[in-house]
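Help needed: design a sequence for this.
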């Protein structure tokens, strides 16, 4: 994507699965990252059924972490 962030339109309440669907619909080039990556909300990994909380103090960080390997 050559950028450090993207914008996604998402109607709340929504869960992480809804977020992943919205990302792939609005940013088709990220399909492979979304399908294998994980989502973190405010620096904590979350599951697909996690409800995205309302932002607090105007701040929330949603991160798509691509698959990594190492040893």
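Sure. Designed sequence:
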């Amino acid at each position: 994507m050559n950028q450090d962030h993207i914008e996604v339109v998402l109607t709340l309440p929504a869960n992480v699965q809804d977020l992943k669907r919205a990302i792939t619909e609005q940013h088709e080039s990220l399909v492979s990252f979304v399908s294998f990556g994980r989502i973190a909300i405010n620096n904590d990994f979350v599951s697909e059924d996690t409800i995205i909380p309302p932002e607090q103090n105007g701040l929330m960080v949603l991160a798509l972490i691509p698959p990594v390997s190492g040893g």
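Strands lie at 38-41, 44-45, 62-65.
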